[in-house]
Amino acid sequence: MRFLVRDRILGIGDDYWIEDDRGNKVFLVDGKALRLRDTFELKDARGRVLVDIRKKMFALRDTMVIERGGDPLATVRRKRLSLLRNHYRVSLADGGTELDVSGRILDREFAVEYDGELLAVISRRLLTVRDTYAVDVVREDADPALLIAVAVCVIHLAEKEREGQKD
């Protein structure tokens, strides 16, 4: 299942639609302005909130939390001991499941894996639409909303890290 995301530098207050490969609006990423921490909501086409995405306020490393219905679903942070700078770990709330995200995050060329099995590929390489990247959900039983939320988180964290290095 392929979803197309119009690329923009994610900032607080940015709202943007995610479309399926037929051009239908499927998800809305709703950036919440005027909050103390970076906050997004992933909504369906009818405006129902599917997941909340928030930057964790007090953490040693930049961390984002994904919640569904007020319950924690996943925590996203850059992998601590990695030779690759663009390597993130997603810890699911079940306590045992971890997803690995690696690749060139800022170039929108990365993959999400579970236990060595590919779940999703994020890429702009094969698209002719300018400033757009695709989120290809490979496994049919995977949760597209969660995988899109993971992509939003890692891109946001990588861009925040890049901004911090410029200062």
From TrEMBL:
Chain ranges passing through the membrane: none
InterPro entries: LOR, LOR_sf, Tubby-like_C
Pfam families: LOR
Superkingdom of this protein's organism: Bacteria
Protein family (similarity comment): Belongs to the LOR family.
Protein name (record): LURP-one-related/scramblase family protein
Source organism phylogeny: Bacteria, Bacillati, Actinomycetota, Actinomycetes, Kitasatosporales
